[in-house]
Amino acid sequence: MHLAAIYRHPVKSLGSESLQHVMLTAGKALPGDRAYAIAHGETRFDPDVPGWAECGNFLRIANIPALARPAIAYDPDTRLLSLTDEGVCARYDLSTEEGCTALAAWAGTAAGSIRPGPYFVAEAPGVAMTDAGDQSPSIMSLASLRDLSERVGVSLDPRRFRGNLWIDGDDLEPWAELEWTGRTLAVGRVDFVVTEPIERCLATAANPETGNRSDNPLPALKSRSNDPLFGMLADVRKSGTVAVGDAVTVGE
Q1: Which one-letter DSSP state was computed for residue 81?
Q2: Where in the chain is the domain with CATH 2.40.33.20?
Q3: Chain centre to alpha carbon of residue 146
Q4: Is the dihedral of CA 46, 50, 53, 58 positive or negative?
Q5: CB 193 within 8 A of CB 181
């Protein structure tokens, strides 16, 4: 098996960014992943006491599928975010109040009346605004994605599942990863412990090409098992850099 792709999502529920390599730190999420989120008018996120907060405090693809459409590029050193949507490119300096306000305004326009304003960019330094609070990268299987695509009847874009590390290989059986809970995983020289499967929601129905809902995979996931599971969370236990093409091995 090998590492086939790496994705991060600098702003929760907003676009995806492909990487060729990334440095991972023990006990931490993938750096720059969900570093920000867009809070709405009913949020309980307190910017004066920032910390991890549940996903309902923020704008989400599950409710606003258009958020999945933009192409994203983010520089963690300068905190400059580039967003390209329907051929229009905008840049936001998230180190400034002006840049954050402009990004929140863009997301608020996409939200329409689904979530009330005011909107603002939420950040808790060093904390990823993942759906689960345990700060673990996610591991996805392209073999499982191909099987699921056959069940749905279309080729599903991996970006629907907003995973971090995608693995593949001739020896990777579809859905094998769902049996890896508690086992070790080595990606290159980085060690993980697989902790739990990821239960999926309506966010996976958002087509990242169109920003509309289509080819919802949830019924196929539910028909396969009692719970709509896809992908696994895995704690980083040994720090290091992973790169596309790295060997992947599963231990005991």
Answers
A1: E
A2: 2-12+19-25+133-250
A3: 19
A4: positive
A5: no
Nearest to 120 by CA among 95, 96, 98, 100: 100
Helix (H) or strand (E) holding 138: strand 138-141
134 pLDDT tier (thresholds 50, 70, 90): confident
Q: Whole-model pTM?
A: 0.95
pLDDT band for 180, please (50, 70, 90 cuts).
very high
Within the chain, residue ranges assigned H as helices are 97-111, 142-152, 218-224
Is the separation of the CB atoms in 42 and 114 below 8 Å?
Answer: no
Residue appearing with tokens 């307190």: 46
Distance CA 230, CA 124 (A): 27
Q: What angle do CA 154, 155, 161 make, to 5 degrees?
A: 110
Q: Percentage of the chain with pLDDT > 90?
A: 94
Q: Which residues of 54-81 are buried (b: 16+ CB within 10 A; e: fewer)?
A: ebebbbbbbbbbbbbbbebebeeeebeb
Q: Give the side-chain half-sphere CA count within 13 A for 85.
A: 20
CA–CA separation, 22 and 170 (whole Å): 24
**Class of the CATH domain delimited by 2-12+19-25+133-250:** mainly beta
How many C-beta neighbours within 10 Å does residue 132 have?
A: 17
CA dist list (Å): 185 to 213, 218, 250: 34, 27, 5
Calculate mean pLDDT across residues 172-181.
97
